[in-house]
Design a protein that fits this description.
Length: 202
């Protein structure tokens, strides 16, 4: 079904099961579509794998977004990290939503970014007072760093946390290295200049 108006939502989109052997991560093999701009640390990937194992039904509720290549394989437009997690967990197939072949490349590019873009922002006070911190961490939420101060509440009552003024901004620069030796050289140089660094191998 083609778009009929600005308010029309496609009704013909279905989730289908595809073998993982037929799905490729986005590495720039589709002309006009740059490689997937997202990466994931081993720690985050471990949390994602844990989430997939504990909540497998979510995979069907949010299938991989894929597009068929001329070679018959599919490229992951959205869900590259879930694809990696499922591969490492030994899955052999995945629920997918197939982008129609006639979709313009500019539209596919938009899907790739929009699928990964977090438009909203967390309400830290609500998370602190109404959600379990350990669960949030298990689900991969990057909780803010706090300054260690606390507020006192009324006697016998659990003090409500006000985190709005306790979030410490963290500024990071990610440097992509050509190899392990370059990584070690840059790490030693930056730490020698007083920067706090950590080594990641993705």
């Amino acid at each position: 079904m083609k778009k009929q108006s600005d308010n029309t939502i496609r009704a013909d989109v279905m989730v289908v099961m595809l073998p993982l052997s037929a799905i490729e991560p986005n590495e720039g093999q589709l002309e006009g579509l740059p490689s997937n701009p997202r990466n994931i640390t081993r720690e985050k990937l471990a949390l994602l794998k844990k989430s997939v194992q504990e909540h497998p039904d979510m995979l069907s509720l949010r299938g991989l977004l894929v597009y068929q290549l001329d070679n018959g394989h599919y490229i992951a437009i959205g869900g590259n990290m879930r694809l990696k997690a499922m591969q490492e967990l030994g899955y052999t197939e995945a629920p997918c939503v197939i982008v129609p072949k006639e979709t313009p490349i500019e539209e596919i590019k938009a899907y790739s970014i929009i699928d990964n873009n977090g438009f909203g922002k967390w309400d830290w006070d609500m998370l602190a007072n109404e959600w379990d911190e350990n669960q949030l961490m298990d689900w991969g939420v990057d909780l803010p760093i706090f300054d260690g101060t606390s507020q006192s509440g009324s006697a016998g009552a659990k003090p409500e946390k006000d985190l709005s003024d306790k979030v410490v901004d963290v500024y990071e620069v990610v440097v992509e290295c050509m190899g392990e030796s370059e990584q070690e050289r840059i790490f030693n140089k930056l730490t020698g200049e007083g920067y706090k660094c950590r080594v990641l191998t993705l």
